[in-house]
Amino acid sequence: MDSLQLLSRIRNIPLVSARLVEGFLSGNYRSVFKGPGLEFDEVREYSTGDDVRSIDWNVTSRMGSPYVKTFREEREMALLLLIDVSASLQTGSGTYRKADTAAIISALLAHSAVHNNDRVGAVFYTDRIEKWVPPMKGRNHLMRLVQDMASIEPVGKGSDLSNAIACVEQSMKRRGICIIVSDFRIPPAYRQMSMLSRKHDLIAVKITDPADKKTPSTGLMELQDPESGRISGSYGFSSRYRKDLEEFWLAEHIFWQRECRRRGIDSLVIDTEEDPAKALLSFFRRRKGK
Prior knowledge:
It is built from ten helices and ten strands.
């Protein structure tokens, strides 16, 4: 799909009214993110009550009287989306693939940033960096970015989040907002995620599909891993087999949530059968209330 089709899809997601989508895009989303920090404003003469820790000793020594540095909150933020485009995202059991849901979520977030006059960029990754889009402002940049979300054709099949995080760390020197959009089907790079969250406001968005959690009640099947290509047998008639598989994925999911929470990383789970806009609205409202 091209960028216009994707934008149309965002505004016409089943069960979502245009008012709801526009309400999200026009909301003051800054209030739900951790502050971007302070930037230097000016140097002025010391006044009674000023924090002595803000004294600029170099200027003070030159002028012969105390001067202090003043700071202000940075006027803009940079939002960087780490978008997983590996082969497992191309799967889905219903109307939408996981990749479609990821694109809709990413486009909604990008729209929100541009609407608030902030910069937005993205790193599309598989087991390699497929494309790097540096954070920029403006509607033209937004349209190009959404076009990339809709039309990117990845070369790799696997997923290497640590490589994507390394790309972000090299490129984003100032504090910003980083949102990972992935199905996290391989063991995530928890250590690298922890390091990234110390410098940036990090949110992990996990895309799931009903097929991830349940196995069809059919006979002997061959299941192929979309990323590794490995084939394994599945016997859907076995209730024990289905139960073991469901318990395995549930344990994986609980572990992922626990690790994110333990490392101070906010997490959100969105299923392909859910309404992405409503899920994002609900998440950010909860976050704002923390």
